[in-house]
Amino acid sequence: MQSGPRRRFRLRYLLLLAVAAGAFVFLGRHAWREWRWRYIVIHHTASDAGNLEYYRRLHKEERGWPDIAYHFVVNNGASNTVPGQIEESNLWKERSRGFSTRNTYVNTVGIAVVMVGNLERHAPTTLQYQSLVSLLVTLAREYDIPPERIIGHRELQQTKCPGQHLDMAKLREDVARELAR
């Protein structure tokens, strides 16, 4: 059995290696949770009523998902909410992937934002739109997502979502203008 300086050196080396491995695992998990975001995908609920809890319950009961499909809900003032109020889901708090598209890659690296309302029939309220732009600017800055990677659900797959009354080109322009300030 070894003793003296060689043994102490090996113990220090093993301890340093264990600390480095733990830091790597911790930082790797943190990096994945925080730095993986590449897209922001915009949706609408296609219904003028509801809030985060309503859609969470709907998605759990009808679709069998563990939570609501989206990371953020931008309310229109219905269902005891304030127009433009932003609700953050548990998916975002835990940085979990969403269920908002049929594209697994986009669900994994995309932040899903839903506007409450049927934007196929009418435009969002002014406060709701302003809150959406503000949220997108914050997320784009925080996660280095350029405006061209803010996409409507219909730009990914055959759907009308987020509705004809949400002009995605204008939304990207408004976000770009705010980012340039």
TrEMBL record:
Peptidoglycan recognition protein family domain mapped to chain residues: 24-157
Entries under InterPro entries matching the protein: Amidase/PGRP_sf (IPR036505), Amidase_domain (IPR002502), PGRP (IPR015510), PGRP_domain_met/bac (IPR006619)
Alphabetical list of SUPFAM superfamilies matching this protein: N-acetylmuramoyl-L-alanine amidase-like (SSF55846)
A biological process term (GO) from this entry: peptidoglycan catabolic process
Protein's recorded name: N-acetylmuramoyl-L-alanine amidase family 2
Domain of life: Bacteria
Taxonomic lineage of the native organism: Bacteria, Pseudomonadati, Spirochaetota, Spirochaetia, Leptospirales
Annotated GO MF terms: N-acetylmuramoyl-L-alanine amidase activity; zinc ion binding
Source organism per UniProt: Leptonema illini DSM 21528
Domain (N-acetylmuramoyl-L-alanine amidase) ranges: 28-163
Family, similarity comment: Belongs to the N-acetylmuramoyl-L-alanine amidase 2 family.
